Input
Amino acid sequence: MFELNRHGVTVSCVQGDITQQPDFDAVVNAANAELRPGGGVAGAIHRAAGPELDAACRSLAPIRPGDAVMTAGYGLPNPWVIHCLGPVYGRDTPSDSLLADCYRNAVELADKEQLQSIGFPALSTGAFGYPMEAAAEVAFQTLLALCASLGHVQQVRFVLFSHDDAALHGRVLRRVGVSN
Ligand code: AR6
Output
């Protein structure tokens, strides 16, 4: 676990499952454009939330790379889910600015809805093929630059499936935090 505080916002990296973060107001779904269950994070979130989530998503789809939309969490331990469509690495271009849009739009939506805490998976780093270290740099640069403008969000947690991915995110967060 590694964390740093910027302008009253704590940004942390932990190993775990994004569907098991009961102390957070919202978790972020690594969605597909149609907001359907799919695999990876999206499959896990829809399994935990149940069929009401799939029904709620229908009127919001399709979304475009970089977009963020919000639904209730239904069977999840969180009241809210923010669904982001990350870029397919190298196909949706420029991939770095589209990935930055995801993080910016998700955290600004959470703040607009007066949420205090938001948990992210490593968007685009699974089926969408974004190299993890490069993705983590985009994520932390984007989020640290936003901290000063947030009025409600106080906790941003990155939840990584493996210990190695959590350790890598901790290293990148420390590095980005020193230079930003
Ligand atoms: N908790 C935390 N991290 C997870 C979990 C979990 N339960 N499950 C996977 N990861 P992905 P993408 C990690 O593929 O690349 C889906 O099929 C995983 O190891 O979920 O944005 C959708 O339907 C990886 O590092 O998201 C879309 O079509 C990261 O989460 C497409 O995949 C993201 O992996 C989205 O692809």
Notes: Residues 95-112 form the longest helix (18 residues). The CA atoms of residues 49 and 84 lie 16 Å apart. The pocket of AR6 is lined by residues 17-19, 30, 32, 38-42, 44, 86, 121-128, 159, 161 (CB under 6 Å). The domain at 2-179 is CATH 3.40.220.10 (Leucine Aminopeptidase, subunit E; domain 1).
